[in-house]
């Protein structure tokens, strides 16, 4: 597969494994998993034909590691970013003292007033380093990187989770913990 095909399949998989599984008639279990063979069949029926080898290539080469196979390889799920109700089975963990969030200037006034919100997603995503936050923020324009005082948040009782692909998750970041 070429890079364009891989990216197209990855985007479509993000849609069905994170937001709209009903688009191709699959279901996600309570932990976000779906059967690999069913996914392959349904994708082919919906103009996104893909083989198991190609699916494995998409999962292995995705720079953000958005997808994961179950240990036995029979199931697949998105690593995080769901807007559908699933439990990734993650236990709360202690975050580093600082994490980062990439955004753009047009959202800064709202962030100063309300903090960072998870919006339609199950969790708010935070990055372990500035470089990753720049990449995230760049998707919407010139990035503006926020430093989040996650160590203090954790000491104040906020919960954090670390997804399988290294994205930090939480429910909300109040303005008092954000360095703009």
Q: SSE layout and pairings?
A:
Elements: H1 3-19, E1 34-35, H2 36-45, H3 52-61, E2 67-69, E3 75-78, E4 99-104, H4 108-114, E5 116-117, E6 124-126, H5 130-137, E7 143-148, H6 150-155, E8 161-162, E9 168-170, E10 172-173, E11 178-179
Antiparallel strand pairs: 1-3, 2-3, 4-7, 5-10, 6-9, 7-11, 8-9
Pfam family, one: PTS_2-RNA
Enzyme class: transferase
Protein name: Probable RNA 2'-phosphotransferase
Kindly summarize this structure in a few lines.
This protein is α+β, with helices and mostly antiparallel strands and 180 residues long. Helix content is 32%, strand content 19%.
Report on the architecture of this protein.
By secondary structure, the chain is α+β, with helices and mostly antiparallel strands. The protein is 32% helix and 19% strand. Helix 1 crosses helix 3 (52-61). The longest helix has 17 residues, at 3-19. The termini are far apart. The mean pLDDT is 94.
Q: What portion of residues belong to β-strands?
A: 15-25%
Instruction: State the low-pLDDT regions, or none.
Output: none
Which overall shape is indicated by the principal axes computed on the Cα atoms? globular
What strand order characterises the main sheet? 1-3-2
Radius of gyration: 17 Å
Can you give the helix content as a percent range?
25-40%
Q: Tell me the series of helices and strands, N- to C-terminal.
A: HEHHEEEHEEHEHEEEE
How many angstroms separate the termini?
42 Å
Give the integer mean of the pLDDT values.
94
Which characteristics define this entry?
180 residues; alpha+beta; three-stranded antiparallel sheet; 6 helices; globular
């Amino acid at each position: 597969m070429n890079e364009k095909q891989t990216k197209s399949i990855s985007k479509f998989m993000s849609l069905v494994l994170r937001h709209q599984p009903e688009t191709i008639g699959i279901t996600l279990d309570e932990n976000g998993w779906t059967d690999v063979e069913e996914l392959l069949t349904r994708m082919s029926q919906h103009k996104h034909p893909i083989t198991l080898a190609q699916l494995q290539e998409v999962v292995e080469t995705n720079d953000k590691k958005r997808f994961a196979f179950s240990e036995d390889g029979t199931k697949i799920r998105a690593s995080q970013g769901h807007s559908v109700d699933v439990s990734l089975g993650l236990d709360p963990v202690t975050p580093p003292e600082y994490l980062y969030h990439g955004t753009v200037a047009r959202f800064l006034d709202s962030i100063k007033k309300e903090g960072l919100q998870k919006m339609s997603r199950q969790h708010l995503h935070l990055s372990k380093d500035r470089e990753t936050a720049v990449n995230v923020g760049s998707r919407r324009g010139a990035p503006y990187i926020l430093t989040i005082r996650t160590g203090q948040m954790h000491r104040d009782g906020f919960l954090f989770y670390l997804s399988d692909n290294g994205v930090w998750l939480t429910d909300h970041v109040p303005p008092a913990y954000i360095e703009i």
